[in-house]
């Protein structure tokens, strides 16, 4: 009987991983409604709409000092950690510089160094859209990618399997880039803006609701 109980426990502990997801409906089964953490937002970023939208402004906001706040790069992280299998969608309204990222909570926040930048740090992984070009960044290493036909991006994380995937979403889902690694900590979704590359329009990024 003891052996049977131990066997049952081992079976329960085994995580059955799904095969590659294909349709958006399959991804939406793992949809996570994320919210931005205002305590991390740089003073040139304005979270709004229940912290589901962030807009860049040239006017410094009078935010309180906070150890979690990015003080040089215009970036913001989400409150909720990403573990297990999670999917979310992001859409930008600008042709300026935007980074769609995941990061460990321990990423540095103070100063201009690469260790604080979502698109350069060893603690973050980023899809970066700048001047009509698309690239993937991790630890200051870049991979150039094909430009998506849509400004709406799906992000899928399978934390235990060590996969991070970015998709372009239009009528269909097109894989833009996939990373295979080992995640050693919970991940946090992040958004970055890069102030040297502005377009005429004010950059805005939205965490999308499933439709």
From TrEMBL:
Pfam families: PRY, SPRY
Single GO MF descriptor: zinc ion binding
Keyword Magnesium attached: no
SUPFAM superfamilies per record: Concanavalin A-like lectins/glucanases
Superkingdom of source: Eukaryota
UniProt entry tagged with the keyword Metal-binding: yes
Alphabetically ordered keywords of this record: Metal-binding, Zinc, Zinc-finger
PROSITE patterns with a match to the protein in the record: B302_SPRY
B30.2/SPRY domain residues: 13-211
GO CC list: cytoplasm
InterPro entries according to UniProt: B30.2/SPRY (IPR001870), B30.2/SPRY_sf (IPR043136), Butyrophylin_SPRY (IPR003879), ConA-like_dom_sf (IPR013320), E3_ubiq-ligase_TRIM/RNF (IPR051051), PRY (IPR006574), SPRY_dom (IPR003877)
Protein name: B30.2/SPRY domain-containing protein
């Amino acid at each position: 009987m003891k052996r049977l109980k131990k066997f049952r426990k081992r079976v329960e502990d085994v995580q059955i991983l799904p095969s590659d997801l294909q349709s958006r409906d399959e991804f939406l089964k793992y949809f996570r409604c994320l919210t931005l953490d205002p305590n991390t937002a740089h003073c040139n970023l304005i979270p709004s709409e229940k912290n589901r939208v962030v807009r860049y402004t040239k006017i410094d906001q009078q935010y309180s000092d906070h150890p979690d706040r990015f003080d040089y790069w215009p970036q913001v992280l989400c409150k909720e950690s990403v573990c297990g299998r999670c999917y979310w969608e992001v859409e930008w309204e600008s042709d300026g510089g935007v980074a769609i990222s995941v990061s460990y909570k321990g990423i540095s926040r103070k100063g201009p160094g690469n260790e604080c930048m979502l698109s350069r740090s060893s603690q973050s992984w980023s899809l970066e859209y700048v001047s009509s070009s698309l690239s993937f960044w991790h630890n200051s290493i870049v991979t150039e990618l094909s430009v998506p036909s849509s400004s709406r991006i799906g992000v899928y994380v399978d934390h235990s399997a060590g996969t991070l995937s970015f998709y372009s979403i239009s009528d269909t889902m097109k894989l833009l880039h996939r990373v295979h690694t080992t995640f050693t900590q919970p991940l946090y979704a992040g958004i970055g803006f890069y102030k040297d590359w502005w377009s005429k329009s004010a950059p805005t990024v939205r965490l999308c609701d499933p439709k």
